[in-house]
Design brief:
about 350 residues, single chain, alpha/beta, Quinone Oxidoreductase, Chain A, domain 1, 20 strands, Rossmann fold
C-alpha cells in the first residue's frame, strides 16, 4: 500500500510525497488517518526549522495530533476491530528505564514521540494517509464523536496534565495567559474543574472570542487594553492559579504580578531562555511549576471529548486537505484568524 505524507525538509520546505506502508506486525495496527491538528511545535519546525535547542536535522514527517480508523490488525492485537475509530496517542515511553520504573513515564529516558526532532534519527509523525502504529497507541472513540474532535485529544491531554499539576481548582480564581489552542483548552478544563473565575489574555480578539466560547468568564486583549489586568494586580494580586501558555516574558511577568501571595504558576508554554522577575516570584512566595505532555490523561481526554464534558469544536477553526498542507500551515501561523487548523486525510 502507498500513502501520501507531509514531510518537512527544512525551514519553509514542506513536500507532499508518497511512501510504501508495510503490513502491521505483531502488536501493531494499520490505520487510515482522518484528521491531524497542526501544533505550535509543527509551526516552529516549519517556520524556523525548530525551536530552542531542538532543530530539524533530517527530513521529518510532521504531526502528533491525529485520529483515524482501523484498517487491519497485526497478530496478537485484542480490544480493537477493523473499522474502529481511534485517537492516536503519540507518546511511547519504554516502560523499563529509571523514570518509567518510578511511575514517571513522561520523563522516560528513551521516550519516542511521533513527529519529534528531539532524537536522532527523528521520530516520524502522523501527517499521512495511512500508518502502522503500536496497538497501545490506539484509544477507541465513542460513536457520535467526529474524528476531527478525536484528533484534539492530544492537546486536551496536555491541558489535563497541566490541570493536575495545578491542584484542586474548585472555587479558585484562574488566569490563563495566551489564547491559542492550549490556552483555550486550559480555560475549558479549569471551568470543568469548578473554577469560580477564568480570565484569559491574548493579543488577538479572534482567539479571545474562541476562549470565551470555551468557557472563559472574561477576556482581556492586552495589546489594545494595556491596563486591563491592573484591577487584578491591586494589593498583592488576585488569582490563585495561573496557566502561562505563551512563554512570552511580559506574560510571565503579568501572571506573577496578578497572582496572590503563595499562588501557583503553571508554565505550559515553551520557549528558549526567558526573563523571569525572580524578585516578585520570591517575595510573593509563588510556586512556579513546570508541566509537559501527559500520561494517563490521554485516555481521560478521549473520554471527556466523547462525553462532551469538554466541547473541543470551537477551537477547530479551519480544515484543509493534505495536498493543501502549505496553505494549512500558513493559515495556522496567522493567529488573527486561526486557533486550531487541521489537515484531513484519506480516512475522513
Amino acid at each position: 500500500m502507498e500513502a501520501r505524507v507531509c514531510r518537512l525538509y527544512g525551514e519553509n520546505d514542506i513536500r507532499i510525497e508518497t511512501v510504501t506502508v508495510a503490513e502491521p506486525g505483531p502488536g501493531e495496527v494499520l490505520l487510515a488517518l482522518a484528521a491531524g491538528g497542526i501544533c505550535g511545535s509543527d509551526l516552529h519546525y516549519y517556520q524556523h526549522g525548530g525551536f530552542g535547542p531542538i532543530r530539524v536535522r533530517e527530513p521529518i514527517i510532521l504531526g502528533h495530533e491525529a485520529s483515524g480508523t482501523v484498517v487491519a490488525l497485526g497478530q496478537g492485537v485484542s480490544g480493537l476491530a477493523k473499522g474502529d475509530p481511534v485517537a492516536i496517542n503519540p507518546s511511547r515511553p519504554c516502560g523499563t528505564c529509571e523514570f518509567c520504573q518510578k511511575g514517571l513515564p513522561i520523563h522516560c529516558l528513551e521516550m519516542r514521540f511521533n513527529g519529534s526532532a528531539m532524537r536522532m534519527p527523528h521520530e516520524q509523525g502522523l501527517f499521512r494517509d495511512h500508518i502502522v502504529v503500536e496497538a497501545r497507541q490506539c484509544v477507541p472513540v465513542a460513536a457520535g464523536v467526529s474524528l476531527a474532535e478525536a484528533a484534539c485529544a492530544e492537546p486536551l491531554a496536555v491541558c489535563l496534565h497541566a490541570r493536575n499539576r495545578a491542584g484542586d481548582l474548585t472555587g479558585q480564581r484562574v488566569l490563563v495567559t495566551g489564547a491559542g489552542p492550549i490556552g483555550a483548552l486550559c480555560a475549558a478544563v479549569a471551568i470543568e474543574a469548578g473554577a469560580a473565575e477564568v480570565v484569559v489574555t491574548d493579543l488577538q480578539d479572534f482567539t479571545l472570542d474562541v476562549a470565551r466560547r470555551m468557557g472563559a468568564t472574561r477576556t482581556v486583549n492586552v495589546a489594545t487594553n494595556g491596563t486591563g489586568l491592573d484591577v487584578y494586580a491591586a494589593g498583592k494580586g488576585t488569582f490563585d492559579v495561573a496557566f502561562e501558555c505563551s512563554a512570552a516574558a511580559p506574560a510571565i511577568k503579568s501572571a506573577i504580578t496578578c497572582l496572590r501571595p503563595q499562588g501557583r504558576l503553571v508554565q505550559v508554554g515553551v520557549a528558549g531562555d526567558t526573563a523571569v522577575p525572580l524578585n516578585m516570584l520570591v517575595g510573593k512566595e509563588i510556586t512556579y511549576c513546570g508541566t509537559q505532555r501527559f500520561d494517563g490523561e490521554f485516555g481521560d481526554a478521549v473520554a471527556m471529548i466523547a462525553q462532551r464534558r469538554i466541547d473541543v469544536r470551537p477551537i477547530i477553526t479551519a480544515t484543509y486537505p493534505l495536498d493543501r498542507a502549505i496553505e494549512a500551515f500558513d493559515a495556522a501561523g496567522n493567529r488573527s484568524g486561526a486557533v486550531k487548523v487541521q489537515l484531513s486525510f484519506a480516512g475522513t
